[in-house]
Design a protein that fits this description.
This protein is an alpha/beta fold. The chain folds into 2 domains: about 60 residues, Signal recognition particle alu RNA binding heterodimer, srp9/1; about 50 residues, 2,3-Dihydroxybiphenyl 1,2-Dioxygenase, domain 1. The chain is built from 2 helices and 8 strands, in the order βαββββαβββ. The strands form 2 sheets. A 4-stranded mixed beta sheet has the order 1-4-3-2, covered by helices on one side. Strands 5-8-7-6 form a 4-stranded mixed beta sheet, with helices on one face. The longest helix is centred in the first third of the chain and has 12 residues. The relative contact order is 0.20.
Length: about 130
Amino acid sequence: MVKLRVTSVTIGTSQPRELARFYSTLLDWPVTASEGPRPGEPPGDGWAQVRPPDGVAGATLNFEFERHFTRPVWPAVAGHQTASQHLDIYVDDLAAAVEWAVSCGAVLSEFQPQQDVRVLFDPDGHPFCLFL
């Protein structure tokens, strides 16, 4: 059997370098790659990457420019862009983690579906969950 292993997740965004800096600060992971716009492309073009530090488990996060990016609506609303994926981030203190995420630039969702999970939005509108 062929061995397959997921190593990274790529997130489409209108602001790849800014989103990489946000997640770098949030997770305390280094930005390991950052490229600006290609010739003739808009200023937001490019990509960036954050990786867990050596000895820390986790997948690499890539942020790639999407020319026609539309912020998702969560919870989903018919006829609007849906969030087709999101990151789940384990925390050991939910209240402190939410406070930290908000101080980094995240926004707490008004709708919270579970008691031990908090849904937040990153600066480009992607939802992510902090959970115990």
